[in-house]
Amino acid sequence: MTYLLDALQARVGEFVSLRRDIHRHPELAFEEHRTSALVADKLEGWGYTVHRGLGGTGVVGTLQRGRGTRRLGLRADMDALPIEEASGADWRSQRPGLMHACGHDGHTAMLLAAARHLAEQGRFDGTLNLIFQPAEEGGGGALRMMADGLFEHHPCDAVFAMHNMPGIPQGRLVFREGAAMASSDYATITLTGTGGHGALPQHAADPVVAAASLVMALQTVVSRNVDPLQAAVVTVGALNAGRANNVIPASATLELSVRALDREVRALLEKRIKALAQAQAESFGVHARVDWRAGYAVLVNTPAETAFAREVALELLGPGQVTLQGPPLTGSEDFAFMLERVPGSYLFIGNGDAPGNCMVHHPGYDFNDDNIAIGSAYWVKLAERFLGEEGPPARQ
Ligand SMILES: [Zn+2]
Ligand SMILES: [Zn+2]
Q1: pTM of the prediction?
Q2: Phi/psi of residue 103, each to 5°?
Q3: How far is CA 390 from CA 6, 124, 318, 384, in A?
Q4: CA 40–ligand 1 middle distance (angstroms)
Q5: Distance from the CA of 2 to the center of ligand 2, in angstroms?
Q6: What are residue 158's DSSP bridge partners?
Q7: What is the mean pLDDT of the chain?
Q8: Selection from 193, 353, 360, 212 nearest residue 285 by Cα
Q9: How far is CA 41 from CA 20, 92, 385, in A?
Q10: What is the C-alpha separation between 182 and 300, in angstroms, rounded?
């Protein structure tokens, strides 16, 4: 299947330039005005029907061919991060304190390269929806697009997305059926006692001792409550109390990051953390308030769509460049919300494993432009197969 790769490689220069242009002009969540306009203008120029402003700065480009009733969604993300770039690249960020440190510039460029090829030469029968979402980095742009009627305006039978990953050989495609990325929830626990003189603890109710005990007790949620064969993370990332050695403060706060790869484990973590906070507080004579904020859901790749996506990758690259079942990650991703509504699959494309290759969110990170041809060829082939005569996987 080198024809498709060759065709996309032949005009990759245009999309490398475009990727670097987006890289020079990073924009934070829901502020992707320039990027979003650039994407929408390109899609319109290639003949797509374009829906702008979905979920704030989101864009959907739709292309319909033939009489086929199948509908496919492919998603890329567009937002950057509040990090000062240290990559030293010629195309480094021109905006101080902001950079594309997660490769969303590359994801956008790969999907645009596929968009152009599909518009000009794509053989398919059905409806192609290219979804460019804002605010993947914590802002929940996928949810905002869905709240704005993404799947009502643009129904999809399946959705797919791709993220680059440093540390994996460049261009390798890594799939996983089932839970692939963790849910990510946040909790603030405030312990309120009675402040007093450090020399007279008998007249106080000390929230510091209660907080110290609670930090240790929370470790038992993972070790004693969660099935040892399941994954879970409870991190107390911040513990704040007091300002002086001889003063017992009136309150202490704990900030938690809580992750799971299973919906039931996720619910168990919330239940046990809340119960422990209350019981520990009571045992020390202080009061606990738990503010729980649900973040991204567990990302679950459905079996039939993952099997289909693997087949496409194997045909494109052969078994040497494809991992059929990679390990799950404790990071999170808001494509999980789209997968709660529509079946589909999310994969990783290796960003390279050379020494000095930086992880995403590192100031020295950069997207690997050699992936643009491979990533876009994968999208083209996936679209042509899903909306083609060979047909998608059978679903009941
Ligand atoms: Zn990121
Ligand atoms: Zn990312």
Answers
A1: 0.92
A2: 80, 15
A3: 23, 10, 19, 9
A4: 23
A5: 29
A6: 72
A7: 96
A8: 193
A9: 17, 24, 27
A10: 9
